[in-house]
Amino acid sequence: MQLLITETLRGRKAAFALEKEYIELFESLPNANVFFSPEWVYSWLLSLGRRYEVCFITCRDEGRLVGVWPFFEHRIPVIGVSLLPVGAQAADLFDPVARQDAMGPLVEALCALCKNYSFAWMPLLSLRFANQVLQPAIKSGKGRHFLRKRTERFLVELDKFKSFEDFMQMVFGPKTRQSLRRKARRLDEKGEVRFQSLETPEDVSPWITKAMQLEKVSWKGEEGVGIFKRATHRAFYHLLMENLAARGRLRLSILTVNDEMVAYEIGILGTDNYCMHGTAFDPAMASFSPGRLLMLHVMEKCIGENRRIYDFLQNDQEFKRQVSTHASSFWDWIVFPRSLRGALLLVLVRTLHNCSEWKRRRAKKIEEAKRKAAENTESPVIDPE
Questions:
Q1: How many domains are there within the chain?
Q2: pTM (2 d.p.)
């Protein structure tokens, strides 16, 4: 009978001592979570994670590392110390890096570890992980759990299309295709237009600062929602992007006009998938839809490489709905200790969630009522001059 052993490693020294095995494990898995790649985890440890105590849950099979789930301790006033996944400030997916048979033991180990914390929170988990691993763990009655759907996840199943032309024909109507061609021609009139796919550290590095500057003047910079919004994040991403590029896991796609960046897209490369992690475009060029044109260029390249999936990751946006061929979801999972404190926190979280859902449903009803009222309102008749 196979016996998998879990262990909790604490402290930065233990985490860095695990790096070589971590790399070997990640490379051995067919579709490991790219947001827990060694480059993500150790870039985080060297930058954003400097002030945190880390806690890695590991799983071994006869001494061989077969699973890792990296966390850090985060102190919240009044509530106490919680566990959050490494990269919680930046990453988009927090499924463990593990063999399938090691997933369950890692979940059980986390539930047991929670007795020492106020709670552990995984804000973005895949639907597959939630269904296949978390649901059985919750039914077993170990720990107090709160599992909820967080946001839609939109994907383009690229392998459904014979070519990029086939994709364009299937996804966009004639008017949209014509509009995109017209915008591309108009953009050509502005100067020398170039689409570039940068993947080596030498090619990527000179453009990272320019990408940060472009985000700052974009709508994301104006609203403070960009990935480079904080100085600490900029330092982290600069290190991360160079490290990912060195391992062949990054594609920085850029659109330039006369050698000036007008749009970029940061893509994280998996085994056969592409994850769109960050984009921005120059608002002065918005009428040409540079972000959309660049995205289509990236998709064309992915189809040419026989990649299976283009993943938009989190956030529900209209253009993602328009282009995607498949919808999934991300899930939140919070586990509390089996104590009075854990029970009270679970009640509090459920109450806040129910209030939020009630407000969301109410806002949706109001919007639907306004839309129906607008549709029923007759347009005024304007006499021609």
A1: 2
A2: 0.88
